[in-house]
Amino acid sequence: MEYDITSRPSYALLTVSLDATESIRAESGAMVSHDAGIDIETNATGGFLKSVRRAFGGESFFQNTFTARESGDVSFAPPLPGDVDHVELNAETLYVQSGSYLAGAEGLDVDTDFGGARSFFGGEGLFLLRVSGTGPLFLSSYGAIESVDLDERGSFVVDTGHIVAFEDTADFTVRKVGGLRSTLTSGEGLVCEFSGSGTVWLQSRSQDAFLSWLIPKLPTQTNSA
C-alpha cells in the first residue's frame, strides 16, 4: 500500500494506491473517488455493540472497506478544511479525538474506550476513540496538523479543542483556565496538560472556536402570526 497527501495543509486530499487484494477501511462519507477495480463493502465495524459504542464516541455507526480486485487508487478527504497526516502503528495504540479518524489499515482495531471524567470535561464526550494494532493510520484535522514530541519538549498545555490524537504512553490532566472569571474574560475554557513520553498531534484551528464566532452572526428566524 502506497499513499500520497496533496493540497496540504488547508484542503488535504489522501490518495491510497492498493495492490490486488489489498484493503483499506475509512469513515463513512470520507471517500472522494476510486478506480473501477475497487470494491466497497459497508459494515458495522467490529459488530453491533462495538459500533454502538463508536457512535457514542462521535464516530459513524458504519465504516466502508475498500478492496482492490486489481491495483487501483482510492481517495479520501475530511469533512472540514484541514490537513491529513500519516502515522505508522507497530503494535501501538493511539487515542483519537472524535472526527479525526479518517482511514486506516483493515487490520487496525478501532474501538472506543471509556475515559471517565477527564474525557468528559475535556470535550471528548464520555468516550475516546482508540486505534490499536499494526499498519498505516490517517488522521484528519481542522486546520494544519503539528506533532509534538513529549520526550523533547516535556510537559505542555494545550486547549482541548486543538487536540487531534495522542499516544497511550502520554499522561494528561484536564483543568479550567484559572477561575470562572478568567475563563470568561480570556475566551479560553478547558486545557489539557500533557506529560510523560510519546507524541501528541495538534490542529491549528478549533471547531468550537469557529462555532462560537459563527453562531452569533447567523440570522435569527421569526415566526409571523
From TrEMBL:
Superkingdom, natural source: Archaea
Signal peptide stretch: none
Pfam families: AIM24
InterPro entries from the UniProt entry: AIM24, AIM24_sf, Trp_RNA-bd_attenuator-like_dom
Classification via Gene3D superfamilies: Mitochondrial biogenesis AIM24
Protein name: TIGR00266 family protein
